[in-house]
Amino acid sequence: MTTRLTISHVGHRGDGVADGRFVPYTLPGEVVEVEGTEERVAPSRIVTASPDRVAPPCPHFGTCGGCALQHWASTPYLAWKRDILTATLAQHGLHPEVAPTVDARGTGRRRVTFHARRGAGTRLEVGFTAARSHAIVAIDACPLLAPSLERALPAARLVARALEGVGKPIDIQVTATLQGLDVELRGPGRLGEKDRLRLMEAANAAGLARLTNHGDLVMQREPPNVMIDGHRVPLPPGGFLQATDAGEEALAHLVLAGVGKAKAVADLFCGVGPFALRLARQAKVRAVDSDAGAVASLAQAVRMASGLKPIQAETRDLFRRPLMASDLKGLDAVVFDPPRAGAEAQATILAKADIGRIVAVSCNPATFARDACSLAAGGWKLGTVTPVDQFTWSAHVELVATFTR
Ligand SMILES: C[S@@+](CC[C@H](N)C(=O)[O-])C[C@H]1O[C@@H](n2cnc3c(N)ncnc32)[C@H](O)[C@@H]1O
Q1: Rounded to the nearest whole angstrom, what is the distance from the C-alpha of residue 364 to the centroid of ligand 1?
Q2: 277 and 394 share a domain?
Q3: CA–CA dist 127, 133 (Å, integer)
Q4: Cβ(187)–Cβ(160) under 8 Å?
Q5: Is beta strand 136-138 parallel, antiparallel or unpaired with respect to 45-48?
Q6: Runs of H (alpha helix) within 283-337
Q7: Is 363 a catalytic residue?
Q8: First vs last C-alpha separation in the chain
Q9: Ligand 1: residue whose CA is nearest its atom 23
Q10: pTM of the model
Q11: Are 99 and 384 in contact (CB under 8 A)?
Q12: Annotated binding residue at 267?
């Protein structure tokens, strides 16, 4: 059965929406035809195309699940990201000024995770998962990657082939570093001597800087570093890193603007310190994260740095042991940048804290909104919220927001 639908808007997961049905790869105002009665269905024909429709740059678009919106012109696409943020905040009763989306694609992603699985036959497939599926779409290139990841896919293939005998699905995270590619594997489990040797050979053949399996060092040519604000920072295996250089710059710029002239700042959920290292140009920083490897990396970078105010780096689980009122005494500002789950426990303490400013960075508007409501209940006023887009063509949006008393 063929049905003709008019797309009213693009939903928060990137699908066109019409009469309660989800039609991927469509745009507002488009008239499309779909077959069948499923709730989510790709169009069989675009009857009237939007003037904002553009040619997707990637031949895998439509099968690869990595991108949802390559067919949308940049301006309306970035405006949509702002709109989904505004709508999520409004659902929680928050109506701040929302700035235009900052396009932080820059030169592209500096980190990527490929998946390697045996396909339906016996073929080993290396690529990304298809949309809403575990099936692998084998790819030959990805337009999202930075030039520094040009060799990432061939390297991932060599690594996957070396572990074919293990027979398990493997995730291959590749990060561009100053020394070359740093690869962290998840999934193969403990390796026997033969697989380990094969893997070392593959790592050498691919010219990797380092290869780790769930944090366990398999091969290291040189310890990988990244450059953060002019400082060399050692990278812990698989440790968090903002997806693009431009994204890190954009978020850090907004964080610095948010803390203003603060002279003592806490950087909570600090990772390897992209905010702490920049904040320490002007302020004494207490930097906290639960990842001991990230905290050790930041501490090492601080020891090698010059011209910075002191940074005290500390390993602590902020979900179970948030900084308490006594810990916050003497601080002018707090920055927090939690994982997707948000910073519920810490926000409850911050709500009552006697500090000048709070800057929140978030990769999840819904948990941010929850935490912002806690802060608002404690008398904090939410200022401008800025959406930042470093996950180009996905439905993912990040943000920076400032709170004042
Ligand atoms: C979104 S990342 C931000 C890292 C850093 N601000 C950056 O820009 O690179 C979130 C960080 O929260 C840390 N984290 C996750 N759960 C945590 C917890 N329970 N307590 C403290 N830190 C945690 C992770 O290790 C990660 O470094």
Answers
A1: 13
A2: yes
A3: 13
A4: no
A5: unpaired
A6: 292-304, 325-328
A7: yes
A8: 58
A9: 290
A10: 0.96
A11: yes
A12: no
